[in-house]
Amino acid sequence: MDSSITRRTGVLLLIFTFSSFLHGSRGEIPTQPTGGSVTILPPVNLDNAPQAYPDPVKENMPVFTMNYQRIQLPFEITLWVLLASFAKIGFNVYHKITIWVPESCLLISIGLIVGGIMYSVHEEPPAVLSRNVFFLYMLPPIVLDSGYFMPTRPFFENIGTVLWFAVVGTLWNSIGIGVSLFAICQIEVFGVQDINLQENLLFATIISAVDPVAVLSVFEDVSVNEQLYIVVFGECLFNDAVTVVLYNMFNFVALMPEVEPVDVFLGVGRFFVVGLGGMGFGIVFGFVAAFTTRFTFKVREIEPLFIFMYSYLAYLVAELFNISSIMAIVTCALTMKYYVEENVSQRSCTTIRHVVKMLGSISETLIFFFLGVVTITTDHEWNWGYILFTLLFAFLWRGLGVLVLTQIINPFRTIPFNFKDQFGLAYGGLRGAVSFALAFTLPENIVRKQLFVTATIAIILFTVFLQGISIRPLIELVNVRRTNRNLDTINVEIHCRLMEHTVAGIEDLCGQWSHFYWKDKFLKFNNRILRKILIRDNRAESSIVALYKRLELQNAMEILDNVSGDISATPSIVSLYEEKKSSAKPKKKFLATDVKNMHDILSKNMYKIRQRTVSYTNKHALPNDSHSREILMRRHTSIRRSLRPGSFQSSVVPKYFSLPAGKSLDTKYPPRRQIYTDDLETMSEVVYHSRPSRFGKPARSSSRAMMPLRRLDTLTEAPSVNLLDESTGEERGSSRRGTSRTNSSSSDSHIPAPHRPFHSSVENDSSSAYNIRSGHHEVEEEQQQQPPPPAWVATPRDNAAQNPLLRRPQWNPKKM
Amino acid sequence: MGASQTRTEKYQDLADKTGFSLEQIENLHKRFQRLSDNEETIRNQHPKEVGSCEEIGFEQFLMVMSHFRPPSLKTTEEEKEAMRKEKLRFLFNMHDTGNDGTITLVEYRKVVEELLSKSGDIEQETVKAMADAAMLEVASTNVPHMAPDEFYEGITFEHFEQILKGLEMETKMYIRFLDVETPTLSCGNSTS
């Protein structure tokens, strides 16, 4: 382990030095002669006399030329991005580092190193932090990332608190720090008397922009309670917006010779215009985007593009009008997400999420990296007094602010913040990217700009390193209230929903409305009007059903999980599964004859089961129950064994989903090969998605629980859709097509059914209890559903059925 | 004079029992009278189908409402536990229409069905499947090693508590009862 680390660091260092030299080539090394164009013209003949043969003075065709100028800019950008990404790879080599030291610290350190190297070769860092580059290119991805992945439900439940802390908190901080610094400036000792109030306020605004990225990841790891998390998260997001607005305002004010009261009023008015205007723009663009995606089912490849273009457009248009572009892009993402994710295909959805995360991550990485670089390479103006007092006041006012604001807002909250929460909130106030950028983009005519820059960098470094590293042990020490993540069971979902309805009803009875009522109203409006306009395939799907489908899916994934790992036909699954499971399962190899036997047993047993279950209705076991149970067990094991490598490699895996009795399989659903891969990719997506979700891995216990259940009830002979059920269906259809079919059917049996309802024959069911068979996993394949097509067809919409359960399962957990 | 005195006594009595403040009780009483057209009791609109009582009086009304009170900053841990248990009990009784102490599959199914009835066409089988799955979850969490031929009778209160252990009831099930009188709102169709 250590040797690999040293090797890697060695490589990294080499790369750094190499690239720094390359960057050096920009200024110092004269540009290479552009030997690209070759002219083979006859040389000018001075005599004008015909020549027998051309002069020897001709240029040969250059075999190898270099033209650095041409590619310089993109090349350097790419190198820097790569460099920062290598750094990220490097950290994660040794897992323990990232637990104790937040990633931003590490990035800054690497940046410091690189900056040191560059400084020693007297090289300038790239001019990345010009105003335009930062605000137009680097900030939007970060904000889009935060906005897109904000957990909407907790956010809206806590929105009052979030806005309170973001807006009022930032104002409090800025004004407090600004005024106290101004007071300090008056003291002659420190020698900063020339900074007037406006400039102080400006500076205070810059450093009150909180950026708790590091803290958020710690919170997530520690599973801190949801309210605290969402308040910190939301505050971070919105106070960026507030800070930028204030910054612009104070910037303007700082340049003015004097300030009149009317300006203050105008300032407040401007504040509202900016904030609400930003939101308005965001909502408009969000709806337009949602509406657009309604029509994109023919052009699935470019679907993700719309998301990005619309959000970026929202950002730019808001910048055009100088209103809060951050608010615009955040509200755009929030509005858009819900509708778009229902309209686009699953692949596009994954792509969108992935790309958003990627862009956000790159931007953030680059910014912290440059922070480190710039720290070394700029000229600093250090002033002990000013900087130390800035640090002091930053802490002080943040702590005070949190205390006071919490006291005011606690009565309005259902779950008041206790002191531990407040501590978490106050201590989590790290400064970061936005402060840095704002400091850098201070206008030049502020005399003490360098001092401000230095002070900002000092604060950022201090908070990120000190607070970032120490917050984890402190949080655990203080024992902040944790949240229980293990809430992904159907029961919980049902009861949550139930309680909401109940409370809304009782509120109506009492005549006292609170946010449940408004939520209810909004949902009704949403369902009735908005969804009809914005979503192409408007079938309302309850989140309970969505959760159920998701759990079913995981359930089926677990079957897959238990199979031996050599699924060579499906690389995506394999890689993800290797990640998940560290233990290698022993691979079972079977002879072809064994396999065939197994398939035969399988099909026979399934057939038998189907017959038998017709009459199995009531509570008590049938007299010869053991027989059926035995068959079930055999079937179970044989299916398990049949999910072995070879079966996946069957070339064409027809995706037949409903087998009305007697019909042939190809009539309804022609086999589609690409669906197979789509399927598996989507399965892998499920696995992938459940990992980064905020609230952790859903409880596997529940899904495991679902497997044993076997309601051996009547299975209607109606056409059914069941991915797992091909062979049974095939039996019913009684069109045995030999082993090839059984091959594919059993291989298909690994494809989980998104729905695996425990079909119960209510018609003739008089009992209320049901039989639980632990360990009979495969029995779910007996399930039937109404015909229509499966959830995973690449273009399902055309023949999509009316059954909401069979639509594409919503893997994006709605609670996200 | 005498009437109002007995009324305040009664209110005080109720306040002690339910934990509401006097102003809140007064408001709720006004509301109650509105709902019941100034009679003593609210009558069940659909006596055959829904609910087990014919009519409820004000005290019962208050008892139900008291389940929805939020915890304040001052409640201790035990009180919070007790409140939580009460709320869970309330929910449990809501489901357990048969009053036999367990939630059977049929009862649970009914709950799921009603919940999902408004959100599009949910097929019967889906509903049943979900109810089954939910029951199974409870079963497997509480009785992990059931032999294949055992039957799970129904969810008892302990199992119910267990399965909903992680849920923060305080956030979900509360109504902020106001002290001031809200403008009387017309009730429309009773929704609860």
UniProtKB/TrEMBL annotation, chain A:
Q: Where is the composition biased (Polar residues)?
A: 761-771
Q: Where does the UniProt annotation place the signal sequence?
A: 1-27
For this UniProt record, the keywords arranged alphabetically read as follows: Antiport, Cell membrane, Ion transport, Membrane, Signal, Sodium, Sodium transport, Transmembrane, Transmembrane helix, Transport
Q: Name one Pfam family in it.
A: Na_H_Exchanger
Q: Where is this region: Disordered?
A: 692-816
Membrane topology of this protein:
Multi-pass membrane protein
Its GO CC terms are: plasma membrane
Q: Which residues form the Sodium/hydrogen exchanger regulatory region domain?
A: 569-671
Q: Name one GO molecular function term.
A: potassium:proton antiporter activity
| GO biological process entries | regulation of intracellular pH; sodium ion import across plasma membrane
The residue ranges crossing the membrane are 71-91, 98-121, 133-150, 162-189, 201-219, 228-250, 270-291, 312-336, 356-377, 384-405, 425-442, 451-475
The chain positions of domain Cation/H+ exchanger transmembrane read 82-475
Q: Where in the cell is it found?
A: Cell membrane
Query: In which family does this protein belong, per the annotation?
Result: Belongs to the monovalent cation:proton antiporter 1 (CPA1) transporter (TC 2.A.36) family.
Q: What is this protein called?
A: Sodium/hydrogen exchanger
UniProtKB/TrEMBL annotation, chain B:
Topology class, membrane? Lipid-anchor
* One annotated GO molecular function: protein kinase inhibitor activity
Where does it live in the cell? Cell projection, Lamellipodium; Cell projection, Ruffle membrane; Cytoplasm; Membrane
Keywords in alphabetical order: Calcium, Cell membrane, Cell projection, Cytoplasm, Differentiation, Lipoprotein, Membrane, Metal-binding, Myristate, Nucleus, Protein kinase inhibitor
Give yes or no: UniProt keyword Metal-binding: yes
**Record keyword Zinc present:** no
What sequence ranges are listed for the domain EF-hand?
83-118
The protein's matches in InterPro entries, at most eight in alphabetical order, are given as: CHP3, EF-hand-dom_pair, EF_hand_dom
Q: Gene Ontology terms, cellular component aspect?
A: cytoplasm; lamellipodium; nucleus; ruffle membrane
PROSITE patterns with a match to the protein in the record: EF_HAND_2
Superkingdom per UniProt: Eukaryota
What's a GO biological-process term for it? Answer: cell differentiation
Protein family (similarity comment): Belongs to the calcineurin regulatory subunit family. CHP subfamily.
Instruction: Please report the name of this protein according to its UniProt entry.
Output: Calcineurin B homologous protein 3
